[in-house]
Each structure stands twice: as C-alpha cells, then as structure tokens.
Design brief:
Length: 318
C-alpha cells in the first residue's frame, strides 16, 4: 500500500495520487507491482525496497558519498514493534525501516510490518525548519524512532517491576516465560539500537545535507536520545539477567516450602491413622471394656497431634 502525503499548514495530508506537492510516499507491505512501479518511477535500485522485506535486515546507509543527490540514497534503520511471543506474552521485536531520498526531492519510506510510531507521526505537526523537506523528514523520522525505543523501554521496566512484586508467592513457570520474553526484547533492542547509532553517526559527515551545520543541533538531540536508549537497554539487560536467576531460585524455594508443609501435614495426619489402626485390631486392648474408651482415645490422639504440630512449628517445618 502506498500513501501519498503532502504538507498543508504543518500537517501531513494524504492524497490519492503522486503530485508535485507530494513530499512523502509511505509504503507499507508493498506488492510486487508496487515495488516495480516505484523502481521504474524514481529510478531506485530494487534492493532499496526488497531489503525491507527481510525482517533481519541490518541498519545501513547507501549513497552517503554524494555531494548532491544525483542518485537515490538509502538510510535503513530498525524500529521497535510489540508482538506476541510463542509463549503467549507480549514481546518487543525490531524490524527494518527504509528511508529513501529521491533525486526529485521526495522521501519514500518502506516497511513490511506495522509501525506504531508512524501512526503518531501522521497526526503530529511537522516541525518548522529552514532545512529542505528531505532533510527535515529524515531527521524527524529518526527522532520518532529514537523516542519510540525509550517509550517501549519504559513499558519493559514496568513489566519487570511488576514481576518482581510477584516473586514472593510464585511457584509457577508463567512468570519465567514473561521474564524470558523481556530478556529477548532487550537483546533485540541492544542490537538494533547499536546498529542505528552507527548509521546516525554517519549523518555528521553526510555530504547530502545542503548546509552541514544546520542539521547538527537536531542530529545531536537524536543521538542523545538514542544513546540514552542504548544505556537503558544495557543496564536493564544486566538487571533482568540477575532477576531471572533470582526468580528461578525463589520459585524453587517457594516450591520447596510447599512440599515441606505438605510433608509436615502428612506426618500429623498419620498419627490418627496409626492410633485408629491399633485400636481397630480384634485383640484384647487397654480400655476396650470401658464405655468412654472412644472419648479417651480421641483426647490422646488430639493431644499427640497438637504436640507434634507445635514441635514442627518451632523447627519451621510447618
């Protein structure tokens, strides 16, 4: 699907066709026909678009050497997106996001999966800038991706803190599966953010910017946000590793406590069974001829159980 966008009063407005006012072509899950159309219309290398179809594509920059855009240039970043893991819990994955600069001053973005940050971008006013629209959009989209990582990291931190609160009573594996999904998300984030950081650092010396110094303040903000995400991911990954080990130990300990209580209860319940078995034998027994025999047997059994329960509690076995 191709969405043609133009800017009116600092807002992105969708149109049905590509016109002279179109500044951004947002392409999502392109068909073979749409890929061939874009390649033919804008003289693009086909791999600029088809590379995004591979979810494992790495971040990269092509066409950086040009002083002016005589050929299309590509900046490929990785963005985060929430999915459902095989274990059935929320997991954060990363997918490639292609930003293509055409020779006629337009920007083409290509994704093969949903992108939450794009929905927000479409409704957010485009920041006013003296930079050309291509440079404005490439910095704006890079900023949106960087802030998106930090938003998702906050969600992962909340999930981790919630799981920590469930440690005291946990004896099941569900929390372990959730912790595993958080750990996988952070591993994906660490790899993607570091790859994005390498590409964004290339923009410092990019010749395609008309005024290299004009974009530096915004690029600095993007790099600060990305480095913050990288640092948070690194710290959180270490914490999750430690919490995961602690979590396994606590779950095992909680299970041992349950087994200890059940074993102690079994010992207590064995006492009436033994006494009942003895007095149930068809032989001559003490108190057999007394009318209140059952009462005294009950008293002795109850007293014995109470004594055993107190002893077990003193030794923290019950």
């Amino acid at each position: 699907m191709i969405n043609y966008l133009k800017i009116e009063n600092s807002q992105l407005v969708s149109s049905q066709t590509d016109t002279a006012e179109t500044v951004w072509l947002a392409v999502e899950k392109p068909t073979e026909e749409e890929i061939n159309q874009l390649v033919a219309t804008y003289k693009l290398p086909k791999d600029y678009i088809t590379g995004v179809l591979d979810d494992n594509e790495n971040s990269r920059f092509e066409g950086l050497h040009q002083n002016t855009l005589e050929e299309p240039a590509l900046m490929l970043l990785q963005y985060p997106h929430a999915t459902i893991s095989p274990s059935g819990y929320t997991q954060m994955d990363t997918f490639p996001f292609a930003i293509i600069l055409t020779t006629d001053g337009k920007v083409i973005t290509v994704i093969n999966n949903s992108a939450d940050f794009l929905k927000q971008t479409f409704t957010t006013p485009v920041p006013d800038s003296e930079l050309p629209i291509q440079e404005t959009l490439i910095l704006y989209l890079s900023w949106q991706i960087s802030t998106c990582y930090n938003r998702f990291l906050k969600e992962l931190i909340k999930q981790t803190n919630k799981l920590e609160g469930e440690l005291k009573v946990s004896t099941e594996n569900s929390q372990l599966y959730q912790m595993m999904d958080i750990q996988k998300s952070l591993v994906y984030f660490e790899s993607a953010i570091n790859s994005n950081l390498e590409v964004l650092n290339m923009l410092y010396n990019a010749r395609i910017f008309t005024d290299p110094r004009a974009h530096l303040p915004r690029l600095h903000d993007i790099l600060v946000e990305t480095k913050q995400a990288a640092t948070t991911t690194k710290i959180q990954l270490k914490l999750v590793d430690k919490v995961s080990d602690t979590f396994s130990a606590i779950v095992s300990n909680n299970l041992n406590n349950v087994m200890k209580i059940l074993t102690s209860l079994t010992i207590v319940l064995t006492i009436p069974t033994i006494i009942g078995g003895i007095f149930g034998m068809n032989v001559k027994l003490p108190f057999a001829n007394r009318e209140d025999a059952f009462f005294w047997i009950f008293i002795v059994t109850t007293a014995t159980c109470i004594i055993v329960i107190r002893r077990l509690k003193k030794r923290n076995l019950l």
